[in-house]
Amino acid sequence: MASDCATRSCTANQLIGARVAPSKARSVTGSGALAICCAGESLPVAHPQAIEQQSKPRSPRNGATKVECRCIRATLIEMPALLSISAIVSIALAQVPPANDRVSYAGESVVRVKLDSIRDLRLMEALSVDMWSHGIYNGEAEFQVTAEQRRSIDSTDLAYCVMIDDLEAAIEAERKRIEAPPPEGGIADLAWFAQVKDLAAINARLDALVAARPDLASIVVAGQSLEGRPIRGLRISALAVGTPAPAVLFDAT
After folding, report:
1. C-alpha 238: how far from its chain's center?
2. 228: helix, coil or strand?
3. Are the C-beta atoms of 197 and 16 separated by less than 8 Å?
């Protein structure tokens, strides 16, 4: 029994995670992450290890309890790497698969299902491609399903609402936004941060910053990601590497 979800707050990060295949995306990210570290001290470098999806309760509406999904976000863990530099700014982001590795999700959708028992959960595990929720909240969880699986759910007594009706179309629309030419405004234009970026776009941004201010900015490599990609960072300092000086570490997703 289907209904329309009152609110859909899933964001671009979820769709990119889905493109990698959610079952894998939630265990290990395919990231060639960028790390940041600072200097004067020996500090471990952080890099992405897992992706998780969380949900939080929303206020009841018309007697029904809803759940608002939050974006998938990269969880950072420490890896043993020592750097001595003045200041590095970095970003961690899951790597978008090459075009020839893209998976088609034609005909698939994401639904939020009311689960009243263990039987309901086991049934949905059998009738879905993957469970998107990191757990069950207020008796509800989200699942990725094919068109055939959705018809099978319709034949049961499970109540659900549709979060993403056409997963393939949603992913492709997001990809077009990511790959669209950047707006004018140069490297200082904050509009660059309005959309999630893939690894190539992030590396290009870092290289542009270095080209604009070679007297202050330089690229550093803090090692490799779990999939063998260089973990690049941006060092911002006019001092030579290793010069004792106060430093600040910025690390973000």
Report:
1. 33
2. coil
3. no
> Would you mind telling me the total number of residues written for the chain in this entry?
253
Closest CA to 110 of 169, 56, 62: 169
Q: Domain 2-252 is of which CATH architecture?
A: 2-Layer Sandwich (3.30)
Strands 88-91 and 249-252, bridge-based pairing: parallel
Residue 181 makes CB contacts below 8 A (sequence gap 6+) with: none
To 10 degrees, the CA torsion angle through 201, 171, 18, 152? 180
Q: Give the whole-angstrom CA distance, residue 196 versus residue 93.
A: 9
Q: What is the pLDDT of residues 181-238, one digit of tens each?
A: 766 655 666 778 877 888 888 999 999 999 999 999 999 998 898 989 999 999 999 9
CA end-to-end distance (rounded Å), the chain: 38
- The DSSP letter of residue 171 is H
Tokens at 213, concatenated? 């201010």
Model pTM greater than 0.70? no
Amino acid making up residue 138 = N
The residues spanned by each domain of the chain are 2-252
Cβ atoms of residues 55 and 133 within 8 Å: yes
Residue 174 CB burial class (10 angstroms; 0-12, 13-18, ≥19): buried
